[in-house]
Each structure stands twice: as structure tokens, then as C-alpha cells.
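Data card: per-record layout.
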Amino acid sequence: MPAPFPTVKNCVLVPTKKFAALERRGRTIECVWDALTPDWSIAQLKEGHRFSNDDAFCGFFAVEAAPTARRLLDLGSGVGSVGLITLWRSSPEATLTCVEAQSLSHDLCRRTITKNNLQNRVELVLEDLRHFDGHHKYDLVTGSPPYFAPADGNASPHEQRAFCKLEFRGGLDDYCACAARALREGGTFAFVMAAQDARCETAPAKHGFGIVRRIDVVFKAGRRPHICVCVCARLGDPRLSNPRTETLVLRDSDGKRTRAYRIWQERSRLPASVSAEEVEAALEALVSATDRGALAAAVAAAEALGIRADPGSEELCAAKARLARFDDGVSVM
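The structure for this 333-residue chain is written out next.
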């Protein structure tokens, strides 16, 4: 077991070398547990680098491209968010290897693995991915590299954040090189990256990959894509005969979540076997039902599918509220 953090209750002292500002101030940073999937929680620093939608998009579209993958590898895994999202959506027989060079993030990931009883499914490797050789044995490789070269950004005084943002231990080119060493023939490599970076196209090609599917993510209608997920295969893979480029817009011009985003949000919390068409039909039924019978049937169907009435599921919450008003004899029109 790794040595425990110096703790004050659930707080930690962050060890730093290159970025020593926090260490000099003797600052403590709280370690918190957050929901990562409906079943698993993840250990993160409250004021450190935290997982985001970027990680969720990468894991989601990776599994959608390789639903039968059994040996998973996540490069530069940090606290484990991309790899664990990928594992959660994969078969129960799937196993995951996480490669991370930062001892702090590595230890946080180990805590997550222990809390969620995943020791038999997850192997943690404390190593710089530039030196890792996967021996061509993995079915699916994922990565969320830093988006910027050191010269293009200001390094955070927080060491964990700095290495996640800037390419101090390599960038997309190094991730592609490692994936080429680790991926078996016929396997899939998926990464998330800044959409406007030309390396999204050039780095995979340099290492023998072609892009099977590219999903550009637009945060608000009218803006340029901010990030993209690229799903790759080795050159010569038959999937490359029909490459696809898609755009996912998260919010309309008024800031409201789009239906496409809502479908993705619900699917991201459901088993990979649940299709977009099933979720779209369920959401449409919830908002279009006009009488009590249709509304009750729509709510039952959505819950049977696995949709949960939490604050983010606006369609189901609104439908259940309407159903309650029906039962109270209040007009809902």
C-alpha cells in the first residue's frame, strides 16, 4: 500500500517540487469524494485538478467504438476518470491498466480503486507514458493529454494542475506513440483534445493511425468547437473506409441544454447497451404526453430504462411533477 498522505481529518498536504508555492505556504487541500458514475465515486483534491466532461466524452465515445473490448489501457490517467468511465461502460469481464507519472494522482486513483472494490479489475502503473511499452496487447487505449505546450500557457503553482494543463511530460504526439506500442491489431485508440489543434489530425497519422470518427463538441451554439474526441484505428483497418465527422452542440444560443446533449447525458449514466434512439424516444414521450395515462406510461418507461429523477433529468422530474398535479386534481394544461 502507498504511504498515506499527511492528513488533518480528510485534508492533505500537497507535495511539490517544481511548483513549491503551496508547500512554502504550508497550505492544506481537502481530498473529497465525488460521483463519477452511478455506481462509483472518485477521490479528488477539492482545489486540485478535477475530472470534467472532456473525460466523460472520451470514455463514452471510446466504448461506443469498441463495446467488446476486454483489455483497456488509459494513458496519463491522472486520478483515473477517463479509464474508470471507460471500464464502467465496458463488459464486466473487462480489465483496466492506468499509467500515470504523478505520484499524487496515482495515489488518489489507488484510493478510488480500493473504495470501489476494483482491485481485481484495475492495475495501476506509476510510470511516464513515454517509457511505457504495452507490447501490443490492449484492445482499447484512451488518453486525455494536456492541451497546451509549456510555451503557450502559464503554469499553475499547483503541481497537479500544471502537469494536467501543460505538456511537461509530453503531449498528443507522445500519447499516439505509446498507443502504437500498446494497441493490438484491430484495436481502437480514442483521445480528447482541443478541437482547433492541428495535431488532432497530424499526430495520429504520424504514428500509423487514421481517424474513424471525430466528434467536435461545441459548448454553445454559434461558437467554434472547443474540444473533440477522435476515435482511431491502425492504417489498413476496414473501419477507415467510412470515416465520420460529427458535431455535438451542448447548449443553444439561449444557454439551454440541447436535446442531443440531454440524450448524451442520460446515456452516459446508463449501460452502453441502451441506444440513443431508446433514450430519445423516452425523453420525447415525457415531454409530449398530455393525459394522465400517457404521462404515467412515459414515466414508467423512462424509469424502466434506467433514467433517474435527479435534478439533471429535467424531463423526468417535470413529468413526475405534472403527474402529481394530475393526482391532486390540478389542471396541468
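Known properties of this structure: The chain has a mean pLDDT of 87. The chain has two domains: 50-249, 259-327.

See the next section for split statistics.
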